[in-house]
Amino acid sequence: MTKTIRSLAVLAVAVCLTGAMCLAESSGQATYKTKCAMCHGATGTPSAAMTKAMGIKSASDPAIMKLTSAEMSSAVKNGKGKMKPIAGLTNQQITDVVAFYRSLK
Ligand code: HEC
């Protein structure tokens, strides 16, 4: 358990070193892991089962990449199709998680 936490911390630092938006990126990533990854997949590509059952597209899909940040935030806040509104996020967390989702390609 502590080992996992330590490697996650190391990962966060590595992201910080490479990413210009260090803080936003790491908090967005943490939110993504707990609130989005179970449907959208850890890397933004949903599992085949999820794609089939819910019609989720990969983050690199052209239809997703042409969405604006505002449209994505609205999908998180208000839900869209089979995606229910994601509860318990502040506006800042939504901004961060959308930025992180958009960085997945
Ligand atoms: C319960 C499963 C589930 C969770 C959890 C979930 N999503 Fe989704 N998401 C979906 C589905 C299903 C769609 C496809 C909606 C549609 O177009 O019918 C979707 C679509 C989207 C879209 C594209 C919206 C569009 O206009 O097509 C974005 C962006 C998105 N999700 C972001 C997120 C983010 C960010 C989170 C975490 C805060 C999240 N989702 C959590 C199931 C989920």
Notes on the protein architecture:
- The protein is mostly helical.
- It has a single domain (2-103), classed as Orthogonal Bundle (Cytochrome Bc1 Complex, Chain D, domain 2).
- Helices cover 66% and strands 0% of the residues.
- The chain has seven helices and no strands.
- It has helices at 2-18, 22-35, 37-40, 48-54, 62-65, 69-78, 91-103.
- Helix 1 packs across helix 2 (22-35), helix 2 crosses helix 7 and helix 6 (69-78) crosses helix 7.
- The protein is globular, with a radius of gyration of 14 Å.
- The mean pLDDT is 86.
- The structure holds heme C.
- Residues 35-36, 38-40, 54-56, 64, 67, 71-72, 75-76, 80-83, 86, 97-98, 101 line the site of heme C.
What is the gist of this entry?
Helix content is 66%, strand content 0%. With 105 residues, the chain is mostly helical. The structure holds heme C.
Oligomer: single chain
> pLDDT under 50 segments (min length 5)?
none
Q: Which ligands does the model contain, each kind named once?
A: heme C
CATH fold-level topology = Cytochrome Bc1 Complex, Chain D, domain 2
Shape: globular
Helix content: 55-70%
Euclidean distance between termini CA atoms: 29 Å
Number of DSSP strands?
A: 0
Structural class: mainly alpha
CATH architecture: Orthogonal Bundle
CATH level 1 name: Mainly Alpha
Helix and strand sequence:
HHHHHHH
The total tally of domains equals: 1
- The gyration radius over C-alpha positions equals 14 Å
Sheet-strand content, in percent, reads under 5%
Overall pLDDT, averaged? 86
